[in-house]
Amino acid sequence: MDSNRNSLKNMPELVMEKILSDLDFFDLISLRKVCQSIRFFIDNFRKMNPKLQSIRITVEPKSIKSTYRFLDNSERLIIYQTLPNRSSLLKWDQKKRILANSNYMDIFLKDFEIFWKNQKLKMEKFQLDLAGNPLKIIYGIRKILAANYENNSNFELGKFEIETSNPCQIPKILSKINPKTLEIWNKNDEKEYWDLEEISKLNQWKNAKKLTINGFYVDPEIRISENFEKIDLIFEAISWEQVLEFKK
Amino acid sequence: MAPKKNSAKRPQPSTPKPSAPARIVKVQSSDGHILQADVRALLLSSTLAATIKGYDDENKPLEKLEVNNVVGFTLKLVLEWCEKHKEDDPAIAQAEKDKKNIFIPSWDRHFLTKLPMGNLFDLITAAYHLDITGLINYGCKTVANSAKGKSTEEMRELFGIPEPWEQPSTSTATWDD
Known about the structure:
The complex is a heterodimer.
Chain A: H1 13-21, H2 25-32, H3 36-43, E1 52-60, E2 63-70, E3 75-83, E4 87-92, E5 95-99, H4 104-118, E6 122-130, H5 135-150, E7 156-164, H6 170-174, E8 179-186, E9 192-194, H7 203-207, E10 210-218, E11 230-235, H8 240-247
Parallel strand pairs in A: 1-6, 6-7, 7-8, 8-10, 9-10, 10-11
Antiparallel strand pairs in A: 1-2, 2-3, 3-4, 4-5
Helix pairs in contact in A: 4-5
Chain B: E1 24-28, E2 34-38, H1 39-42, H2 46-57, E3 64-66, H3 72-85, H4 90-96, H5 106-113, H6 117-130, H7 133-147, H8 152-159
Parallel strand pairs in B: 1-3
Antiparallel strand pairs in B: 1-2
Helix pairs in contact in B: 3-6, 6-7
């Protein structure tokens, strides 16, 4: 009866849970890539909580950098890069790994999903720095955020900070999170006009308590709702009446 | 003894300990090996303890215990572990049952880390079937320790799990809403 050797794959649930409880989040990420049945178990492992303080994602034309900062102030940087011949390069700590036949964006999204999906209670900051218009990543991230958002399994998010030269990307992400503070930066050096019409309709816009917009001119006609306790904006031209209005 | 505050309802801890000299019984593995063990060591297994109690309650002589789901090689390891721990205070095992940070004593660390991974999993599985809390805990902790900080490839090698033929699906991204 012992011809089927016992292995990690067929351990009883209690044993599996004990083993997993002892591993940190990065070990679990490596372990879940070992095989399908282990991945299934880990993805349904309720006690999994990365205990994140913040996530920073920097998207460049051929690479993605993600920095996960934990409650104990430790930090882990993972870099995903594209290589010729449809392969990807992953770098973390002092380690490197090349994955053949893979797209670095998919690998990043899967890792990010595990973090986001398992985060509990609250996270201080989510930072997104986007070069160009990386649609696949934006929609990938949006889908992951949406799954939490729509299941109501969302954790509390302190601040959402986004740096982009393409402000139409912002509502795509913002509509799937609920940050208390919103900070927007223009990636271009020159200040540009940004029409707040679309974003100001979002509930998230209305629910935020603090708002900072850097590097974009906004229309002073825009209705800034009363919810903001603190606002930092630049207007291209503003009439004295409008200044008085805002001062209120 | 000064009475403690909340001890009114609590019954006196009186776990009946066999104080008699070592009582040796035969234990038979699933593949027919017959081993010998001190009953006190076997009591570390909740499953075997219940069986032994059944015999004692009915005053039946206990000659041989059959362990139908553990092979001889593994059973020998189990009994070796139990023999080593038969004098442990049962309260310690109870306290460690759900504790997160388990410290593995050096004897156990040596005993468990020298085993090939396959044997270790056999041993953990046996401990699970026999419900031996301490051995499950130390075994799981040993497995976790050996996996810590390893990459996916290193873990595959450690656990003897071959690389899957197909790459994980790469069609997760959706472009539309």
